[in-house]
Amino acid sequence: MYNVLICDDERDIVSALKIYLSSEGYNIFEAYTGKQALDIIDANDIHLVLMDIMMPELDGLSAMLKLREESNIPVILLTAKSEDTDKILGLNVGADDYITKPFNPVEVIARVKSQLRRYMQLGGTQQRQTSLSMDGIELDDKSKMVTVDGEEVNLTPTEFEILKLLMQHADEVMSPKDIYRSVWKDNPYGAESTVAVHIRHLREKIEINPAEPRYLKVVWGQGYKFERRR
After folding, report:
1. Is the peptide bond before 102 cis (omega within 30 degrees of 0)?
2. pTM of the full predicted structure?
3. 16 and 102 both lie in a single domain
4. At the N or C end, where does the chain have fewer CB atoms within 10 A?
């Protein structure tokens, strides 16, 4: 049974999500501030978090920053705002996905299942490689550990999957839509901006100079590739 934490200062939303997700067999934890969420995560084995952005005491983005210092568990942000800037900001601080209120319960369940499936290694039709090693980057799929020139880097589950995908297809250009389909297991609506944010965040973690990347290259108008040094 997977433990899912729902954090929102609107108790009706927490109650509704609890009903939907409990019916799918998930064990639900409830929090109403970012601080409560972090306390629950510290004390329990949480597998996924649904986190509101606008909350008292500690907002969702601040809680996300603190969480990402120690944990890579999947986080889906809930926001009442529909502007792209809010979504991009959430992705920038480590969110794996986002859902805009008012949300469709079927969509919430589908996204939760998708994130848990990837995180817990329960799905996927591709042949899994346990490790990849290229030009100073070591990626271990079992431990979910990545090192660059011997130094461990802390990636979110989504960042890990993007890097793994591009390394598996080294020197091949992959479009944002292809990356989105492979990693998110979903239709690529808004794929360009979502993938771009994750690529930028990934570069900040693995590149010496993100402005002049040696690994993750953009091919304008086509997509991205992991470029092996000759």
Report:
1. yes
2. 0.57
3. yes
4. C
